Amino acid sequence: MRERVATADFVKCICIILMVLFHLVCVEEAYPYAKAVVYTFHMPVFLFLSGLFANMSKPAAVFGRYILWIFIPYAVMEAAYTGMSAILPVRGGVESLSPAVIIHNVFFQPMGPYWYLHTLIVALLACYLCSVACRRLPTLLFIIVLSLCLGVLSYIGLLSADSALYFILGVAVGRCHMDFDVLFRPTALAFVPLVILCCFPENLDRFTLAGLAIVYLSVCCMLWIYRFIPVRIKSVMHFIGRNTLPILLFSPIFTMASKAFLPLFSFDSTLVLFACIAVPFAVGGSLFIAWAMDKTRFSGSSRKHGAYVKLGN
To answer: Which of 18, 211, 220, 249 could form a Cys-Cys staple with 206, CB 3.0–4.6 A?
Structure first.
C-alpha cells in the first residue's frame, strides 16, 4: 500500500483544473491549439498515476466495493448525460433515447467526459484479475500478461490503445518500486524541449514517442513550478488533487451551468475573467456535492471517512 505523494496530488490538481477549463465550450473554441496541447498530456497523466498507485493487494471484497463506488456514480452520471444529450444541443449527442442506448453507453461506449472513469474501471478490473491469476509470476511476465489482456480489451473497443499504454506504464513503474519524485525530475530545462515539441501539431498525439515525451516533460515542468508555490496554496492544491473523482463526476453540471453568466463577461474577449470564475465554480460546486453526499451518508460512507471527499491520507 503506497503512501500518498504530495507532488503527485499537486500534478493531479493541475491536470483536473485544466480538464475543467477546457470543458468550458467557449474556452475550448477560443483556444483550440492550447486545448490540443493540454489533451496530449492531462488524461495520460491521470492514467499513469492510476496505474502507478493501483493497490492490487486488497481482498476481493474490498476491491469490489472500491470499484462499485466508482461505477455507481459513473453509471448514474453517464446515463444522465446520455439522456440530456437527446434533449440539449450536446456535441455528438444521441438522436433517439432508449434503454438499450443508455446500457450501451454505460457499459461499452461512454459519451461525453465520463470515458475516463469507464476506462479506469476496465483497466483496474483487468489489472486485479491478472494480479490474482499471475500472483507468482515475476514482474516482467506480469506486465506482459497485463499488456496482452488490455490489448484484447482495446481491440474489442472497451478502452483505447493509448489509455492502455499509459496505465500499463504506471503499473510497470509501480511494480518496480520507483518513486514518483525520482522518476520525474523537476527542472526548468524541461520547458525548452516541451515548448519545441508543442510547436508542431504532428507531435500532439499521445500515442507517439513525441506525445510520450510531452507527457513526461509536462510533469517535470509542473514539479519545478511546485517549488515556488506558497505553502498555504499547496495545501489547497493537495486537497483538490486528493479529490479528483468528484470533480470528474460532477463538474459537467457546473461547466454547463456556467453558460448562464457568460454574457456578463462579454467585454473580455480573452475569456480569462470568465475562466477565473467558472473553473472555481465548477471545482467548488463538485466538492460541495461530494461533501453533502458524505455528510448525508448518501455516498455510503461512514461518519469518519468520506467516500468521495478525502481530507487526508
So the answer is: 211
To the nearest 5 percent, what fractions of the chain are helix, strand and coil?
Answer: 70, 0, 30
CA distances from 288 to 11, 246, 282, 294, 311 (A): 22, 9, 10, 10, 13
Q: What's the pTM value of the predicted model, to 2 decimals?
A: 0.88
Neighbours of 266 (CB within 10 A): 8
> How distant is the alpha carbon of residue 212 from its chain centre?
17
Q: If you search the block for the grid coordinates 485544466, which residue do you land on?
A: 18
Tell me the one-letter amino acid at 88: L
Angle at CA 52, nearest 5°, toward 147 and 8? 150
- Cα atoms in the Cβ-side hemisphere of radius 13 Å centred on 228: 7
Q: What's the count of helices (H) and strands (E) in the chain, helices before strands? A: 14, 0
Query: From the CA atom positions of the chain, what is the Rg in Å?
Result: 20
Do residues 276 and 24 touch, judged by C-beta distance below 8 A? no
Mind listing the pLDDT tens digit of every residue in the chain (313 residues)? 456 789 999 999 999 999 999 999 899 999 999 999 999 999 999 999 999 998 888 899 999 999 998 999 899 988 888 887 777 656 666 667 788 888 888 898 888 778 999 999 999 999 999 999 888 888 899 999 999 999 999 999 999 999 999 999 999 999 888 888 889 999 999 999 999 999 999 999 999 999 999 999 999 999 999 999 999 999 999 999 999 999 999 998 899 899 899 999 999 999 999 999 999 999 999 999 999 988 877 655 544 444 455 544 3
Check: CB of residue 137 under 8 Å from CB of residue 131: no
